[in-house]
Amino acid sequence: MDINATLLGQALTFAVLVWFTMKFVWPPLTNMMDERAKRIADGLAAAERGKQDLEEASRRVEAEIRAAQQKATEMLINAEKRANQIVEEAKQAARTEGERIIADAKAEIDQEVLRAKESLRSQVAGLAVAGAEKILRKEVDASKHADLLASIKAEL
């Protein structure tokens, strides 16, 4: 065999191998590489979307936390206001009740004073009658002189 024929045979075999590879082997390999590149790109895009979603969720969580803290602060302020209002209402009710009790006590004292005055009038009238009896040395009939005693009571 001649080197030229071998070289030509090898070149022809190499050309057939190249054609076979380009026709049957290379397209599935390029398709697989393209699909893999597409999956990698999709995975990177999904990772980026996930990262953005995570950042958005973090912002929403922070906003919710701030809103909850603000609401809790408002609730505390309202509770303190209501507590102060209840204390003031209780103080006012206690003042009103105390004033009522004082007014009742004053009315009762006034009634006791009137009863005491009436009792003293009766005692003074009795003493006046007894004194007059001793002075006159005769007995004064209280039932006969009831009108006189009533007028003396009224004057006292």
From TrEMBL:
Its main location: membrane. Belongs to the ATPase B chain family. F-type ATPases have 2 components, F(1) - the catalytic core - and F(0) - the membrane proton channel. F(1) has five subunits: alpha(3), beta(3), gamma(1), delta(1), epsilon(1). F(0) has three main subunits: a(1), b(2) and c(10-14). The alpha and beta chains form an alternating ring which encloses part of the gamma chain. F(1) is attached to F(0) by a central stalk formed by the gamma and epsilon chains, while a peripheral stalk is formed by the delta and b chains. PANTHER family: ATP SYNTHASE SUBUNIT B, ATP SYNTHASE SUBUNIT B', CHLOROPLASTIC. The gene is atpF. The lineage of its organism: Bacteria, Pseudomonadati, Pseudomonadota, Betaproteobacteria, Neisseriales. Component of the F(0) channel, it forms part of the peripheral stalk, linking F(1) to F(0). The b'-subunit is a diverged and duplicated form of b found in plants and photosynthetic bacteria. F(1)F(0) ATP synthase produces ATP from ADP in the presence of a proton or sodium gradient. F-type ATPases consist of two structural domains, F(1) containing the extramembraneous catalytic core and F(0) containing the membrane proton channel, linked together by a central stalk and a peripheral stalk. During catalysis, ATP synthesis in the catalytic domain of F(1) is coupled via a rotary mechanism of the central stalk subunits to proton translocation. One of its GO terms (molecular function) is proton-transporting ATPase activity, rotational mechanism. It holds the Pfam family ATP-synt_B. The keyword Cytoplasm does not apply. This is ATP synthase subunit b. InterPro entries: ATP_synth_B-like_membr_sf (IPR028987), ATP_synth_b/b'su_bac/chlpt (IPR002146), ATP_synth_F0_bsu_bac (IPR005864), ATP_synthase_B_chain (IPR050059). The keyword Cytoplasm does not apply. The chain crosses the membrane at residues 6-26. Residues 44-97 form a coiled coil. GO terms for cellular component: endomembrane system; plasma membrane; proton-transporting ATP synthase complex. It is found in: Cell membrane; Endomembrane system. Keywords: ATP synthesis, Cell inner membrane, Cell membrane, CF(0), Coiled coil, Hydrogen ion transport, Ion transport, Membrane, Transmembrane, Transmembrane helix, Transport. It is a single-pass membrane protein.
